[in-house]
Amino acid sequence: MQVTVEGKVVLVTGASRGIGQATALEFASSGAEGVTITSRKPENIEAAAAELVDAGVDPTRLFPLAARADSEESADEAVRATVERFGSCDILVNNAGTNPSAGALMDVDLGALDKTWAVNLRAPLLWVRAAYRASMEENGGSVVNVSSVGGLRPSPITGAYNVSKAGLVHLTRQLALELAPTIRVNAVAPAVVKTRLSELLWQDEPAAARMHPLGRLGTPQEIARAIVFLASDAADWITGVVLPVDGGMTHASSSGIA
Fold first, then answer.
1. Which of 23, 31, 110, 184 is the most buried (most CB within 10 A)?
2. Which active-site residues does the annotation give?
3. How many angstroms separate the CA atoms of 123 and 138, rounded?
4. What's the CATH fold of domain 9-254?
């Protein structure tokens, strides 16, 4: 079965590079009527838009916006502008994330911890509320949150990040309960994907690859395909699910293999 989002309007946060940019391209390639992409810096999101157009995305169906992920005002304005431009906001992907607080929780800078939790946990709720009020309450929709395998199990170094992603896992399930039956809310939980955000984890790429039973790091495109599936009507009886897209890491860990 071909997975399409024909006629749907999509908003992807944190889309200037990596998983977010790949997700925007995948939605556009899967028939989306309109794709709004956001990032904090105007120059970054404009550059990402130019790259997407070079990759074949119709510029009339692409709407780049500068917006802070952790700002309620930015979320409201971006969703409102999307509805004004394309007529609705059918799919929301909460991809924006940050991890400035590497280190043990006993030592991590509390200001960095606050920023991590604000962007990774509080911000997705702000964007869901904005989409709900502007479009989804009346028309229904689908939300996909980008969590992490770090939200499913503890690991060294990235404790503050992991806690924020674990919170996002529970937020996904809570919203799936509260917003059913007209709005579906799911999440993906990637393992190590070769992006700038996760560079600390794959600096030693051979060692990082060995952590995954499939023997390699993930790609942004592989995460994007899972996101589009969960957002599409092909997954219309799926909600409250957190899908590991992790090269087998979660299963291997829970089975005592790794």
1. 23
2. 161
3. 22
4. Rossmann fold (3.40.50)
